[in-house]
Design brief:
Chain lengths: 270, 317
């Protein structure tokens, strides 16, 4: 029987609206890579993760590390929609004295597990959590969302070696494979392909999915939980997904929509 | 608690670290020790042999090691990251800054082979700017033990502190100058001996040469106070105020670059409050080089004899 994910689709639409709105209001931020990860984030926060904003520090919770910290608008939208902080906070994004810093800061914003923003560090942190939680004999899972561009960082591959060497079966890494980074196409700036083979060679269980399909995201995680190795899910996505004029346009990596563009975007997200 | 090393004997400070880890391994199940393929050099192998299930060798990967330690701290562990000071503070600086310090994580970073003590390995391996780098980071504390006893006390203390700590160790066996009455206290400099003619402040194992220099000077009728500034951060400003108020000749001796070391740190403090002139024996704007630790100490002016001569000259005697 085909599962119905329409409730996730409507949450995803709200998440996209929040992303566009807070970046527009801030006058800066990163829409492209926030929008490409919306289905992954929505599936995690509203279907897969064991978490509870009322008990945000519950030691048994699943953990989510946003390695691509510039997708902060996505994380903030997911946290707010989950109930980690009041809606009013969203308007402070990137402004002085706001808990919603330009890149996520764990000491300022509830629900942010660790501060990120300098790329390539999330997988190592997730590895440490996975090692520690296994040692704690907790049955939870550690998730991280990486950008494809940040795979240029050598630290990612240090962590990739570590995870398979220490058999971190409770670790599930998503790659938001939207094919673009600031300077252009990933394959032009610094080629990543054959990406799946690289991860296989590093000893990981590898799945490639459509990163905008809830059924594929959810079934890939179910499978990932059963593997004895760490799992990577290469999620093929569209940068800027959901706003037609932002899709696959590298200029929308780190640019805020003006008033006119904002209205256009919202209309597409009704 | 009884100190593990006897005053006057020779031991490397890393031995104090290694022994403290063994004690912590027994008393605290949250302790996890990480190393980057240098476990035998840093003494983390003592812990690895006794508690292999709580020891993680990450291979030669300092950046990942720091990130993994961050993750471990988020799972409630107390990780001690161990490798050469030159590598962990340099190569993993961004990881220490953006992950550990920015999130105020409970990670202990232990840089062995601080200063010139790695000797023949040369400038690439000698951490003479580690304090400058670590001192830039909010939330992080910096401890620099004078000997193996203090390293032992500091390691135990660091495990009790919630938040990041950098501990600077050294390679060579140096004289144990702390006795049974010594108790390290985070954030407190310790007066080891008192004299009326001047004040020497120092940190790290150069303290053993300073101590010998003080004996040479006492033989010539000059008695100086010796103050062990083993916590660089948070800075013991009450001790600095006391020193400034004493108006005695002041000498800062450190196996570190003048830039960014204790010399710079206290110069900033004094110049903003009560400008005083003082002397420093530290490393000018240059790298270290190969040589035996003794030869390097002599060349860079850190041998007891050179220290004593410098002080005599500076005091116009």
């Amino acid at each position: 029987m085909k599962e119905d994910f329409s409730h996730l689709s409507s949450i995803a639409k709200r998440i996209r609206r929040i992303i566009i709105e807070i970046i527009h209001r801030a006058g800066s931020g990163h829409p492209g890579g926030s929008l490409s990860g919306v289905e992954i984030g929505t599936a995690l926060f509203f279907h897969l993760l064991v978490h509870n904003p009322e008990k945000a520090k519950d030691p048994l919770r699943d953990r989510f590390i946003l390695s691509k910290g510039h997708a902060a608008p996505l994380l903030y939208a997911l946290l707010q929609e989950s109930g980690y902080f009041p809606e009013e906070w969203l308007s402070g994004f990137r402004k002085l004295d706001s808990p919603l810093q330009g890149h996520p800061h764990s000491l300022k914003c509830p629900g942010v597990e660790v501060s990120t923003g300098s790329l390539g560090q999330g997988l190592s942190i997730a590895c440490g959590l996975a090692w520690g939680e296994r040692d704690n004999q907790h049955k939870n899972h550690i998730y991280t969302l990486m950008g494809d561009g940040e795979l240029d960082e050598g630290q990612v591959w240090e962590a990739a070696m570590f995870a398979s060497h220490y058999h971190l079966h409770n670790l599930i890494a998503f790659i938001d494979r939207n094919n673009l980074q600031i300077d252009g196409k990933t394959e032009t700036v610094m080629a990543l392909e054959p990406l799946a083979l690289k991860w296989q060679a590093f000893g990981w269980d590898v799945q490639e999915i459509n990163g905008h399909s809830f059924s594929e995201i959810i079934s890939s995680v179910k499978r990932a939980k059963k593997t004895p190795q760490p799992s990577v899910i290469i999620a093929r996505t569209v940068k800027g997904k959901g706003v037609s004029f932002m899709e696959n346009e590298r200029d929308w990596h780190g640019k805020a929509p003006n008033a006119e563009e904002f209205e256009l975007a919202l209309r597409e997200l009704e | 608690m009884k100190l593990p090393f006897v005053k006057g004997e020779l031991f490397p400070v890393r031995d104090g670290y290694g022994k403290a880890l063994l004690a912590l391994g027994e008393s605290n199940p949250k302790i996890v020790v990480l190393d980057a393929d240098l476990a035998a050099s840093t003494r983390s192998n003592w812990f690895a042999d006794r508690y292999p299930e709580r020891f993680i060798d990450v291979g030669i990967a300092e950046q990942n090691m720091t990130g993994v330690a961050a993750g471990l701290s988020l799972s409630g562990k107390i990780p001690f990251v161990t490798t050469y000071g030159a590598f962990v503070t340099g190569r993993a600086f961004d990881q220490i800054r953006n992950t550990v310090s920015y999130s105020n994580l409970n990670v202990k970073i232990v840089g062995s082979h601080g200063g010139l003590s790695v000797g023949p390995d040369g400038g690439s391996h000698q951490a003479i700017e580690d304090i400058a780098l670590m001192n830039l980071l909010p939330n992080l504390k910096i401890f620099c033990p004078v000997d193996a006893n203090e390293a032992w006390q500091m390691t135990l203390a660091a495990a009790e502190i919630e938040g990041p700590v950098y501990i600077r160790l050294a390679r060579e066996a140096t004289e144990i100058i702390t006795g049974e009455d010594y108790q390290f206290e985070a954030g407190r400099a310790a007066m080891l001996s008192a004299g009326d003619d001047g004040i020497i402040i120092f940190h790290s194992v150069i303290g053993s040469e300073v101590s010998k220099a003080a004996t040479l000077l006492a033989g010539q009728g000059l008695n100086l106070s010796l103050i062990n500034f083993s916590t660089i951060k948070p800075l013991d400003t009450s001790m600095l105020d006391y020193i400034a108020a004493s108006e005695k000749p002041l000498f800062v001796i450190e196996e570190h670059l003048t830039n960014g070391g204790l010399t710079s740190i206290i110069a900033t403090y004094f110049s903003l409050r009560r400008p005083i002139k003082f002397h420093t024996i530290s490393i000018a704007d240059c790298f270290g080089e190969s040589g035996s630790p003794e030869a390097l100490y002599d060349k860079f002016g850190f041998s007891a004899k050179k220290i004593a001569n410098y002080i005599i000259k500076a005091m116009n005697l």
